[in-house]
Amino acid sequence: MITELVSAFGLGLAGAGHCLGMCGGIAAALQLGGGQGTGMTLAYHGGRLTSYTVLGAALGLAAGSIDIAAWTIGLRYLAGILLVAMGCYIAGWWHLLQWLERGGAVLWRPVQKWTGSLLPLRHPAQAAVLGMCWGLMPCGLIYSSLAWAATAQDYRLSALMMLFFGLGTLPAMLATSFGAGRVQALLRRRGLKALIGLLLICAGLWSLYTTIAHHSHLGH
């Protein structure tokens, strides 16, 4: 469990540049809300993390409801492949996961139209709802993380993995909200992203190796 949670946190942390591009604008705008700016910002991010956690739990529950050996083995292979793909994506070596964003854009459009009714934000509760909707936006990093979390086949672990992924995105997002330029610069550093990407690739390859090595045992 610890390995999965550390990997999920590292994935969110290393995806700082991507998160800033997708959500940085609204995160910065929320802090301009005068006296309620801080409350709005915290409510938004709380809603965002809640969305990730609930989606992770739902997918983990769905994946775990199928008790077939071949299904379990297939999910373990998928977990290893996704870790490798996400590591390459984070490090900037391979952008295959961008096709997820193009597909997700179709599902996001009706949600995006509905969120327009929440603006301008006047209360933290509206910011929290907006944050929950933002968890559905077409982001290859979010979608692939959800698919990876589902491979745990346990709604509790899947939920925790997505929560830790969300926590990993917080330093960059809060730095944007509160104007911490140095933190943003650190999280954007290519060396850090490459290091975490490489660690994710190694974790994925190890997962694939152990699945192959114990394939016959898992089949039984």
Automatic annotation (TrEMBL):
<feature type="domain" description="Urease accessory protein UreH-like transmembrane">
    <location>
        <begin position="8"/>
        <end position="206"/>
    </location>
</feature>
<feature type="transmembrane region" description="Helical">
    <location>
        <begin position="192"/>
        <end position="212"/>
    </location>
</feature>
<feature type="transmembrane region" description="Helical">
    <location>
        <begin position="157"/>
        <end position="180"/>
    </location>
</feature>
<feature type="transmembrane region" description="Helical">
    <location>
        <begin position="6"/>
        <end position="30"/>
    </location>
</feature>
<keyword id="KW-1133">Transmembrane helix</keyword>
<dbReference type="Pfam" id="PF13386">
    <property type="entry name" value="DsbD_2"/>
</dbReference>
<protein>
    <submittedName>
        <fullName>Sulfite exporter TauE/SafE family protein</fullName>
    </submittedName>
</protein>
<dbReference type="InterPro" id="IPR039447">
    <property type="entry name" value="UreH-like_TM_dom"/>
</dbReference>
<keyword id="KW-0812">Transmembrane</keyword>
<feature type="transmembrane region" description="Helical">
    <location>
        <begin position="51"/>
        <end position="71"/>
    </location>
</feature>
<feature type="transmembrane region" description="Helical">
    <location>
        <begin position="127"/>
        <end position="151"/>
    </location>
</feature>
<feature type="transmembrane region" description="Helical">
    <location>
        <begin position="77"/>
        <end position="97"/>
    </location>
</feature>
<keyword id="KW-0472">Membrane</keyword>
